[in-house]
Amino acid sequence: QVQLQESGGGLVQPGGSLKLSCKASGNIFSSAVMGWYRQAPGKQRELVASMSSGGSTNYAESVKGRFDISRGKWEPTVYLEMNNLKPEDTAVYYCNTNWVSGPYEYDYWGQGTQVTVSS
Question: Which of 37, 43, 54, 62 has the largest CB neighbor count within 10 A?
Fold first, then answer.
């Protein structure tokens, strides 16, 4: 069983920065994608950023140039550096890892961490 533990959320003023961390435990497939999603009140969950095991990244248009995703070199961790935060970035941020192995798809989520951008 895979577990994901997020940390680093909080309250920040507009223009500020936060860094989210997520550590995975359990049997993570070597080619797993790791990433971050967010869900604001009344909205659907959306992809923020993801990174493949090979280092390819994918960002939502709304965060390009402001957010940076990275993965731990030796541990199954993923980070999200968030800069120039805006009130519209306010949401619960969820860590995700997923992969395909043969005929099976695996998809795991963290419990979420709240990010609030407000003055």
Answer: 37
CA distance 32 to 55: 11
How open is the CA angle 77-81-85, to the nearest 5 degrees?
145
Q: Please report, to the nearest 10 degrees, the dihedral formed by the alpha carbons of residues 19, 23, 24, 28 taken in order.
A: 80
What distance in Å separates the CA atoms of residue 119 and residue 114, rounded to the nearest whole number?
16
Alpha-carbon dihedral of residues 11, 94, 52, 58, nearest 10 degrees? -60
Amino acid in the structure at residue 33: V
Reported as a single tens digit per residue, the pLDDT across 100-110 is 989 999 999 99
62 φ, ψ (degrees, to nearest 5): -70, -15
- What digits encode the pLDDT tens for the residues 52-89? 999 999 999 999 999 999 999 888 999 999 999 999 99
DSSP state at residue 44: -
Amino acid sitting at position 37: Y
Cα–Cα separations (whole angstroms), residue 89 to 72, 83, 108, 117: 24, 11, 23, 7
| Type of residue found at 104 | Y
